Amino acid sequence: MAEDQKNMHSIDNLDDSDEASSSTNDGAGELQQALDAKADECKALNEKYLRLAAEFDNYKRLAQRDQREQIKFGNEQILKELLPVVDNLERAIKSAKGTGTVDALTEGVELTLKQLAGALTKFGVKAVESVGQAFDPATQQAVAQVPSDTVPENHVVEEYQKGYLLQDRILRAAMVTVSTGAAN
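User: That's the sequence. What structure does it adopt?
Assistant: Structure tokens below.
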């Protein structure tokens, strides 16, 4: 090996060592270019990532604002449907005061109740029928029990307050009196 090192520094091998160093320089230049290209690509991808992250933050803010508005004004449509009902109640009261008859007031209130029931139905609210039906603790709340010769045991005798369903979910349970069966 020592002989090879001596030969490497000899005058005859001088031209060969220049070729080796120039090929090494060419390889280093190519590596530097590749490194620069990768650095530029990395920089471009980082900028693209930052833009995408900023767009996502903007989207998130907009979605949160839309959600807050939806919560704030989510019941707007049903309230718009109920305003004419309020108007009709006011008209019925005004009309009853003007005519002095109870029949006009009763008729006005019945029409208003019909309009309100229509508005509730439009939004998926429906009344639960209770009287004469078997007692169902999922949709009814028993407030009293009475003996009855006409209504079978564990069936609803009287309804104090109607129950309502919203779609298939109970909105309010009916308050009912339940039969204990025939009186002794």
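The radius of gyration is 43 Å.
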